[in-house]
Automatic annotation (TrEMBL):
It holds the Pfam family PDZ_2. The active site is at S261, K306. Residues 255-354 form the Lon proteolytic domain. The lineage of its organism: Bacteria, Bacillati, Actinomycetota, Actinomycetes, Nakamurellales. This is endopeptidase La. It comes from Nakamurella antarctica. GO terms for molecular function: ATP binding; ATP-dependent peptidase activity; serine-type endopeptidase activity. The keyword Protease applies. Gene3D superfamilies: 3.30.230.10. Its EC number is 3.4.21.53. Keywords: Hydrolase, Protease, Serine protease. It comes from the Bacteria. It catalyses: Hydrolysis of proteins in presence of ATP.
Amino acid sequence: MSWFKSLSVRGRTLSIGLVLTGVLVVAGSTVSIPYVALGPGVTINTLGTYDGAPIYTFAGEDIPPAVNENFGDGSHLNMTTVSVTDGMTLFGALGLWASGNSALVPREEVYPPGQTTEQVKEENAKSFKESQNSSEIAALTYLKYPQVIYVGTIADNSPSYDVLDPQDQVVAVDGVQVADSAALQAALANTTPGQVVTVTVLRAAPGGSAAQKDLKVTLGKNPDPAAESGRGFLGIVPQMRPVAPFTISNSLAKSDIGGPSAGLMFTLGIIDRLTSGDLTSGHYIAGTGTIDTSGVVGPIGGILMKMIAAKDVGATIFLVPADNCTEALTRVPSGLQLVKVAKLTDATTALDLISKGETPPGC
């Protein structure tokens, strides 16, 4: 270190500064930080194709002729996504932030502690599948397809646990036809705990078909003190859902897209495919929002990034969940019209107004 001691004070200061700068440069360009960057993701037209296959395909009987209508290149109902960049260095993160199209958030907001990246992806994939199921139910309900009874929710450790499936359509109990919840209750009226009953269901099979199954359930005792005593307990919360004589397949089910936020756009895509005409009236429409089976549209994350993604691909109208409007208004891309949506009928009414040249309610 004799060379260092021989330097002037200014020389020593400069040398130390250069070393510290070098350390900072190395660390900033090689060491990962506990943040991820959220940015505009892919957008996919639900009226179009994915990997060369139509987003929606239909199989079965009485498929509406409308599914064969040819949508023009100008017809868009795009779902939007957010990209996630993980494993960033400090300099990489600063570069994305400086671009103005990305937001930095703590990594634990996307990948919670105690969960691996694969576990998070599996949960997102499950949410995506549930979103597809909810969108199909919401669309068929909107189109007034007949309602039938499904198993619905199954309580843990109930008599039906690991025997019935929430997606089973209930057909009969001990040979007595069941059309709704009242009929199901009537079929169980004279049963007792410990009695074995045969529940006939229609269960979805690979390829979209459905197979009838006779399943044995040993009834239990209802744990609810207010329930009628002595009656056998099946342990389900049945749900009425619409049913069509055909099945609906979504090609995005095989993609690596995750999360529930495409629900609204999936629903609109199904409705447009099953009805004559064009919901978009030739407009480039994009949007986001979860949807439940009753058609209620819920808020999502990354609204600003999704609006940027929509604008980048040419969208001029963006459907915004009502609860996201306040955030959406903080940064509206130039030329993008925001439409406020709290439920499915808000969206369909808005699209009808747009087709007439009128302005729907905005954020």
